[in-house]
Amino acid sequence: MKFFTILSLDSRKLLRQDFNQVYDTSDQSNKINRITARVSDWSEGGPFHRLSTRSEKFFSHIDHNSEENAENGYQREAFILTPRLNNLNVDSLVRKIQSVKSVVLTTHKQCDGDGLGAMLGLFHALRKSGQKVRVLAVDKVPTKYAFLEPDRYLEVYADNHLPLDKTELALIFDTNDRRLVEPLYKELEAKCKEILFVDHHPVLNKGPEPTPGSFIDTRAASSGEISYFIVKGLGVRLDEKIARCLYTSIAFDTQLFRYVKSSPTSHLICADLLEYERNPEEIHQYLFSTHSVGKVAFLSKMLAKIEFFGNARLAVLKLASQDLIDHDLEMDDSRDIIDMIMNINSLQAAALFREESSGVYKLSLRSKGKIEILGVAEGFQGGGHLYAAGALLMGQYEDLKIEVVDQILHRLALPAPSKSRS
Hints:
Elements: H1 9-24, H2 28-42, E1 49-50, H3 53-56, H4 67-71, E2 79-80, H5 91-99, E3 102-107, H6 113-128, E4 132-137, H7 150-153, E5 155-156, E6 167-173, H8 184-191, E7 192-199, E8 215-216, H9 223-234, H10 240-253, H11 265-273, H12 280-288, H13 293-303, E9 307-309, E10 314-319, H14 321-326, H15 335-341, E11 349-357, E12 360-367, H16 374-379, E13 383-384, E14 388-394, H17 397-411, H18 417-420
Parallel strand pairs: 3-4, 3-6, 4-5, 6-7, 7-8, 10-11
Antiparallel strand pairs: 1-2, 9-10, 11-12, 12-14, 13-14
Helix pairs in contact: 1-2, 5-9, 6-9, 6-10, 9-10, 10-12
């Protein structure tokens, strides 16, 4: 069997055209010979991937044992050339999980699709392998994730839950900041022999240190990608439940593959998951297309309140908790607003102040990439990614707004608000 290098885009198109000719013609042996000859001209060694189960079905009608096909060098275990999957080295984490008999899984408060999908995917895998595993959410899971059946599998720490037993290992997904897991974190410290963070966010310069042995890799576009490699490392065969959870995690945090960190890894993992998850469109709809009439009215009201600074390079919006109550919405329903704001073509950055209680605001920051805004969040003891971050602020809104706007405009090399307000 020949080994081949990754093909250029034009070469892959040519190869695909020849494969299509194989499907459409009765004279298959000649076409197979042409493919073999052309591919052999392109290559000598390199990364490759085995044909997926679905792709192999296209070739199942060919007589692989015929002398003619054997002479042409065609084998059923053919290899198709694709971008290489950037494997994350989770070996130490896999060995740790394999060495214990009890595991607790959780994620940050106000959980989102990434942390929830990553921990539920691993939960199903561990339970499938016979591991004693329990999954907890710090607070209520947003109703939009009901399709993952969280009520069936996890407990909510803020509600009535069974006491936490002595446990050998706790894994915390999608954060490396223990403050975002309180008050559950204190009980984990008391009941768990070891606590590890499993995350893809940068470690905070001004925050608490992650626990020793934690797995943090900022190359991953989502925590679900890390969870996928853990499942693979454990040798657990994927199934529909695992795949649905992990696909949800990746689709949510990449915003349907808009933010994949210049890597094919997210797409390649999901291609594997879609061998088991047969209805990804349904997941997309649950994640991004579930607006009620009340939510549309809420979004309309909020978008009309946007303030622009720096010649419309920066947008700022304040969201009061009463606005959510008036439209019968959950806190999670406010997540869409800042992403909608970022669709404005002139913008480089946006800041959303969401009122948690009187004088307390959850700050969400976004950047299109011209400037990093993680440093702004860290200045308020927050964290996140270079271009998507947040923090919890306390004080008078107008004072907080001016401070945030000043910092962002400074990064954009634009004048102070008093001189630039549009």
